[in-house]
From TrEMBL:
Keyword Repeat: no
Residue ranges of domain CHAT in the record: 555-821
UniProt keyword Cell membrane present: no
SUPFAM superfamilies per UniProt: TPR-like
Highest rank taxon of the organism: Bacteria
TPR repeats: 148-181, 188-221
Pfam families for the chain: CHAT, TPR_12
Entry keywords, A to Z: TPR repeat
Protein name as annotated: TPR_REGION domain-containing protein
Amino acid sequence: MLHPDESVIPVVEHSGIARKAARPATVRACLIGVGVSAVLLFGMGEGGVPVFAQSSPNGLDNVGARSADQEMKYGTARYHEGAFAQAAVHWMNAALKYEEGGHVKAQCQALINMAHALQSEGQIRRAQRTLQAALKLSEQTGDRLLTATILAQLGTTSQLMGKYELATEHLTKALGLAREETKPALVATVLNDLGNALAARGQFAEAIDVYEESRSLAVDTKQPELSATAHINGAMALLQNQQSADAQRQFDRALAETQSLQDSPIKASGLLTIGLGYQDLHAALVSGPLSGMKQEAGNARSRETGASAQVGGNLLRQSSEAFVAAGEVATRVGDTRGQSYAWGYLGALRERERLPEEALAYSRKASLAAQRLNAPEALYQWQWQTARLLRAAGQEEEALAAYQRAVVNLKPIGHEFSVGYQGRHHSFNESVAPLFVEYEDALLRRASTVASPEGKQQLLVQVRDTVETAHAAELQDYFQDDCVATAKTHRGTGMLPAGTAVVYPVSLPDRLELLVETSAGLKQYGVPVHADVLTNEVRNFRRLVQDRRSENFLPSAQALYGWLIAPLQQDFAASGITTLVMIPEGPLRTIPIAALHDGREFVVNKYAVAVSPAMELTDSGPLQRTRGSALSLGVTDSVLGFPAKPGRGEEVHAVNALYGGTSLLNNQFSTPSLEQEIRNSGGGIVHVASHTEVGNNAEKSFLLAYDEKISMDRLAQMVGLLQERNQPLELLTLSACETAVGDDRAALGLSGIAVKTGARSALASLWVAEEQVVPELVKEFYRQLQDPTVSKAIALQRAQQKILSQRGTSHPSFWSAFLLINNWM
């Protein structure tokens, strides 16, 4: 777990790349990615030898008068100052000028440099797109060495995006080209990055061998910085391979080698990484690796025993010394970014050592440096660290302001905040979730003590907005694309309708808070249940509710009702609330709220229920009933190893009978036919009666067509064709969807299906319900929707009530799996 005195720290790469790392500063270090930096930053001369551009004075005016070569030099100068955004602009200008002059190879080099700066800035997707453009240019030139360079960097960006197989593929191709061209210096750098990719995939033994080969070649080709890099990375791989004693010896040797380098930003970042490595080693020797579950994020760090402190004290001292040395080197060479990280890391370490005044001073210095650089990926972390220290000191007002600044600076970074440690992609819970939960906790505590109604409302609005930001960031982390930003642009506006309540359950370590929004405003309800108790009950309920042979789920259903619904029901009755829109988080996404029980009846008999990952991602306008017809699809045969499901044919025919349109069954339901039919669709309903899996990452999620598995990315591209005509899909139904029990990440993906595909609403199942029941439930849902006075949420409620009322199908395993996601109107 992440504790309150741990930061999520970006890792400064040896080559100057600042990969934004979702990681506790005091727990994890990172492998350093060279990314063929000398070639990328300075261009290649004859024979592939790097050509080093000279630094030039900063000149941001009179852009049109500068030559492309001058722009390249300015970019290099800004890059070495740590001003990556400015460097990217200079190199972009150079690329445009080279293009105007028809200098394709030089244009390609400028794009490579630009991508390197974007990657350093943390804009991984933009860097990758730039590299793909450069790759096309390099293929035109026929320059195999240039192509190898780009492929290697594409491997690094793929790794940063969590696409480890693709990263290995790119790097292996680059390595082959470099060997064929007999360029041992480039081979050495590519080997280092290939080692990073192997380590990210957990192949530590192979990575150790690759790093050693890289280091040997670096020595032979007189690349001392690369030699030190591979040395450090080898130490990290040894530690990851649980060879702690060997790792410590290699860190010590790497430290001596790095200290012997000439002062440079590369030397500073190497020292930083060694300092982080010593902290990782300390954690491994003393307390083992720490996890990052959000519900525990607010717990205080357990105190180390005297024996543990003795074991790890020397390692923490070495870590501190490495950070101090890094800061000194960065100061001497004018590396403001290196200074920021050195001071930030020292602040985190002093916080750990319970030296709050020193920790606060370092954190503030780090923040100022990051502000000078305009580096939000660093700034939000030091502001977060500052907020935590201020809160611990009882300075609540100052702490709240610092938390708010941290959240504001986190927003422009996008989903890539959780990329970093060894290029590994970390879940949201392992990265920035603790920032949000700490801020939410502080705001809610403050709101509970404010007497003024206006002041309380202001604080509760801040809580709501923070929860919304957290959920949107988490969803973007899951899908790894810009679907969240797209969804925000399509969101409808307006007040909540009467009779509707939006419920935000906020699970904190020591309690549950229910934030409820109605047309009358926001209200806060505190529930004394600890996060771990709530999570355990959720897990029990989800496991038991699917077993239709017993009613063992009832105790959990009633306990959860008591925590999530009972505190609200009196106010709901007084306000005439009939529809609940739940904005669940974490484990609560894995359960059907409609199946909670008050001891007499299920929630579904009291309220229509919808769920959404965030209201800011929900188009809350009314159902567009007159536009388009249905496209109903299904697979009943056994295909691609999945069993036959004859009942799905009945489901497809039922939808087609009610709404008309087109139906595609079995071999008619192919990927090309689906795309063509969506192109011809009027934007109404797409109903899919075929196996659909939602995994713990978007790459593992698919729906089954007759000819292949259609990824969520591909499905989103198809549905997006409607948005090109300004006709978003009204409803996407996935009636045979399945998420694994206890898989919070998969449930997150399910909750975001409408956002990802661009549909206004989705109807999907948490698990595959009984085949004989689904057609009847689906038919009743669509029949109810034909009534213009009935909302989607009420249509689902009535369909579920119908199944519940029938003999033999009253158990919630038959009817409660279906969730209405996003627009409920």
